[in-house]
Amino acid sequence: MARKRVTLKATLGRGEFYWVTEVDANSEEEAVVAAENLFLAEMERINEWEFTDFDVS
Fold first, then answer.
1. What are phi and psi of 37, to 5 degrees?
2. Which pLDDT belongs to residue 49?
3. pLDDT at 17
4. What's the chain look like in SS3?
5. What are the phi and psi torsion angles at 42 (to 5°)?
6. Are the C-beta atoms of 9 and 18 separated by less than 8 Å?
7. What is the pTM assigned to this prediction?
8. Residue 3 in contact with residue 24, Cβ under 8 Å?
9. What confidence tens digit (pLDDT) does each residue in 31-57 have?
10. Measured distance CA(3)–CA(13) in Å, rounded
11. pLDDT band at 12; cut points 50, 70, 90
12. Could you read off the pLDDT of 15-28 as tens digits, one per residue?
């Protein structure tokens, strides 16, 4: 099993949302599923996090 860095992108009505994380997986497909599951777990605690970085151009 290898450590993989995964970037997920969702195009929303008013912008784009990126989720970047690292997971242990045997394949790209497994890595995507693991990253999605980590994102869903974080969303359950949505009141506990905030944006910590930004870029304005």
1. -65, -40
2. 83
3. 93
4. CEEEEEEEEEEECCEEEEEEEEEEECCHHHHHHHHHHHHHHHHCCHHHCCCCCCCCC
5. -65, -40
6. yes
7. 0.84
8. yes
9. 999 999 999 999 898 888 888 999 999
10. 32
11. very high
12. 999 999 999 999 99
Task: For CA atoms 28, 29, 34, 37, give the dihedral sign.
Answer: positive
Structure-token match 């944006």, residue found: 51
The tokens 């995964």 sit on which residue?
6
Neighbours of 6 (CB within 10 A): 19
Q: What is the largest CA-CA distance in the chain?
A: 40
Separation between Cα atoms, residue 1 and residue 25, nearest integer Å: 5
Calculate the alpha carbon distances from 23 to 3, 41, 48, 54, 56 in Å.
Answer: 6, 14, 22, 24, 29
